[in-house]
Every structure is written in C-alpha cells, then in structure tokens.
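Note to self: keep these together.
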Amino acid sequence: MIYLLNLNSNSSYPLEVNRWAYENSERIIHVFSFSIRCVSVGRTYQDFQPISAESSPETEHLPVFRRITGGGAVFHSPDSDISFAFSFEHDLISIKKIFLNIAKKISTFLETELNLNNLRIFDNGDILLNDIKICGISCVRKGKFFLFEGCFLIPNKTKKIPFNFSKLCFNSYGKKIRNFKDLSAKLFNFLKENFQ
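Structure:
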C-alpha cells in the first residue's frame, strides 16, 4: 500500500502518480492539491475549448492535466479544493452501489469536518450542497482492481447554478478552505481508516 499526502503541486505529478499506481495495480491512498490554477479533465473528455470557469481572460490559458479516471473538467486553485485517490479490489456487484457507498462515506466526512448539513448524494458519486455540486468522484477499473479519484470544494456562489453533468463537474473555483492543511491531513487519515 502506498500512502501519499502531496499538497500544493505545481504540475500534473499527483495525477501521474495515480496513473502509475493504476497501471501497476498498486494499492494507493493519496490526498493532493495544486499550487496553481489549473484544470483536470477525465480520460475521455474530448474538447478543451469549453474550459472556462467564467469566460474570463484569467481562465483562458490554464494548464490542463488529464486524469486516468473519467469525468468532466474540474477547476483547481490553491487552498480551495482537495483532491483524493484510492484503490482497492472488489468483486463487482453494482458500480452504482460502489459509487453510492463511497459518496456516503465522503459526505459523512464533509458533514463532520466542515459542519455541512442536508447534503444530497447521487449514485454516480456526486455530492451536492444547496443544489450545487461540491464533490465529484470518478473511476477506472481493470478486472477487480478499481482506482477512484475525487475532489471537493466549497463553491463561491451561494445561489443555485444550472449544471450539466456531462460537461462540467464544477462551474467555478471554490472558496479558500480554512485550515486547508489540517483538513487535508484529516481526509488522508479518514481515507486510511475507511478504504484500506
């Protein structure tokens, strides 16, 4: 088992580590973040043209890093979102049940550590607060080996945002997270306790 807490990367290194772990069927628990504004996109995300958090000049030339798992575009910025990855072996019963169980555990962490209430959980792993997506989870598998990658943020916007699951996971950057390093370490320990 590989354990990594890798905060404030200025490159795609954390995603490359996840890819390496998957390709080598290595068990991993990895909590990471980026020190630069960037975008990560899922392995099948085809069109980089629509990547623009709010169609502002500062979002036009962002570095784009590709995840080995699925999903749409996720906007990352320093101390505003926490990403995670973990892998395990599982006899597949239902991928929706696996996603739902993972989302339930992650939502428990978010409720406890961020004092959030009334989170909505979907069977694709998405977690919403006030109808705004705050956490997404994606997966890739080979045989019984699964790698999950996810990210959570607290949105800057407080009103309901129309979203399209097939295009963007998160419409904008999140707020700066108080006690970012402490919360990252707590998530790391939570994943070790729940996903070994």
